[in-house]
Design brief:
The complex is a heterodimer of chains A (about 120) and B (about 120). Chain A has about 120 residues and is mostly beta strands. Chain A has strands at about 5, 10-15, 20, 25, 30-40, 45-50, 60, 65-70, 75-80, 90-95, 105, 110-115. Chain B has about 120 residues and is mostly beta strands. The chains are: A mainly beta (about 120), B mainly beta (about 120).
C-alpha cells in the first residue's frame, strides 16, 4: 500500500528565511513520482514541484527545491527566501507509475510566514 | 486558456437526497480525476478517467458514489442517498496523458464544489 506522512501540522518561518517541510513516503512501486502542492486559504490547489523516482538530480523550481533521499524515502520541500504570500497549506503527494494514476496525498503542513 | 471549472461552487442538500457535481476539464486533457477533501485533511482520491472510461475507481467509498464521462470531456460525480459524512469539498483535476505533446507531470485542479449535507 502507498502512504504519505507529513509530521508537521504547522510551521512558522520568518520572512526571507528558508524553511523545510518534511515528507516521508512508502510504496512498493519500483517507479513513482512525488509532488508538492500549495493550497492557499482560497482553496485552489497549486502545483509546485515534481520529482521522479529515477531522476538523478533533486528538482528545483524557482524558490522551491525538493530534497529527495530515496533510501530514506523522504521528499522534503525547501522554500528559500520565504514571502508572506507563502503562508498556506502544503501537501506532499505520490503517484505510482505502475497500475494506474492513483495519487495519494499527505495530511498537509500549514506554513505561517511572519513579517 | 480556461482552467478546470466545477459547478456548482456550493451545494447544500438534505440527508437522503441525490446530488450531481460537474467538472469541466481543460480542453484536450484526456485524464480526469475526482478527489474528496474533508476539513483539515489532504485530498482523497476517488476515481480516475482516461478518456471516457474509468481506469481506476478504487477510491469510491461505496456504491452510493458513481461518476461518468460519456464524451471524454465533462464529468459528473453522482452521489445517491447523501449522508452527513459526505460533506466535504469535491475537487476535480485534469491532465494530459503521458506521451501527449505538452505533457507535464502535474494535475490542474478546479476550485472545487463545497457540499454540505444537512
Amino acid at each position: 500500500a502507498q502512504k504519505i506522512t507529513q509530521t508537521q501540522p504547522g510551521m512558522f518561518v520568518q520572512e526571507k528565511e528558508a524553511v523545510t517541510l518534511d515528507c516521508t513516503y512508502d510504496t512498493s512501486d519500483p517507479s513513482y513520482g512525488l509532488f508538492w502542492y500549495k493550497q492557499p486559504s482560497s482553496g485552489e490547489m497549486i502545483f509546485l514541484i515534481y520529482q521522479g523516482s529515477y531522476d538523478q538530480q533533486n528538482a528545483t523550481e524557482g524558490r522551491y527545491s525538493l530534497n529527495f533521499q530515496k533510501a530514506r524515502k523522504s521528499a522534503n520541500l525547501v522554500i528559500s527566501a520565504s514571502q508572506l504570500g507563502d503562508s498556506a497549506m502544503y501537501f506532499c503527494a505520490m503517484r505510482g507509475n505502475t497500475g494506474g494514476f492513483k495519487t495519494i496525498f499527505g495530511a498537509g503542513t500549514r506554513l505561517f510566514v511572519k513579517a | 486558456g480556461a482552467g478546470v471549472s466545477q459547478t456548482p461552487s456550493n451545494k447544500v442538500t438534505e440527508k437522503g437526497k441525490y446530488v450531481e457535481l460537474r467538472c469541466d476539464p481543460i480542453s484536450g486533457h484526456t485524464a480526469l480525476y475526482w478527489y474528496r477533501q474533508s476539513l483539515g485533511q489532504g485530498p482523497e482520491f476517488l476515481i480516475y478517467f482516461q478518456g471516457t472510461g474509468a481506469a481506476d475507481d478504487s477510491g469510491l467509498p461505496n456504491d452510493r458514489f458513481f461518476a461518468v464521462r460519456p464524451e471524454g470531456s465533462v464529468s459528473t460525480l453522482k452521489i445517491q442517498r447523501t449522508e452527513r459524512g459526505d460533506s466535504a469539498v469535491y475537487l476535480c483535476a485534469s491532465s494530459l496523458r503521458p506521451g501527449q505533446p505538452g505533457y507535464q507531470e502535474t494535475q490542474y485542479f478546479g476550485p472545487g464544489t463545497r457540499l454540505l449535507v444537512l
